[in-house]
Amino acid sequence: MLKLLSARDPKWTSLEKTSIDVIARFEGVDEDFPFTATPWDEMEHGRDIFERAKAGEFGTVAEWEDIPYDEKIQQARHDRNVLLVELDNIVNNPLRWASYTEEYKAQLATYRQELLDVPDQEGFPYNVVWPQKPWE
């Protein structure tokens, strides 16, 4: 699970109030970046950020505005790149890699390809289905 260091500027991403955008900073990442949190996120930190933002921990959640397409693309690609870095930190450790079964290595390779294919999803960038991590 990624450790959230800070979040700010929460805003609803739809009229239905099903997800919240924040500007987040995570441990191990040297910059703030847009992050979309949902209550059904496959990753625990995404669900946690949604609940904390909804409760007002990061300030009042601003009402939804139509987010420009280019901004939403940039945000989705950045979220994907953070996940790729997380995966790279796992697979680029030779001792750890050598301890994995061939089946698990194949699962990691599939997960990586699914991340790379995110921009090809039909709903991209507004309705992204994030692949499930093999290690969670």
**Average pLDDT over all residues:** 90
Q: What is the 3D form?
A: globular
Summarize the main sheet. Answer: 3 strands, antiparallel
Count of individual beta strands: 3
Strand order across the largest sheet: 1-2-3
User: What oligomerization state is this entry in?
Assistant: single chain
Structural overview:
Helix content is 40%, strand content 15%. The chain is α+β, with helices and mostly antiparallel strands and 136 residues long. A three-stranded antiparallel β-sheet has the order 1-2-3. The protein is globular, with a radius of gyration of 16 Å.
Keywords:
4 helices; single chain; 40% helix; 2 domains; 136 residues; alpha+beta; globular; 3-stranded antiparallel sheet
Brief write-up:
The protein has 136 residues and is α+β, with helices and mostly antiparallel strands. 40% of the residues lie in helices and 15% in strands.
Explain the layout of strands and helices.
Layout: E1 4-12, E2 20-26, E3 33-37, H1 44-54, H2 69-91, H3 94-99, H4 102-116
Antiparallel strand pairs: 1-2, 2-3
Helix pairs in contact: 2-4
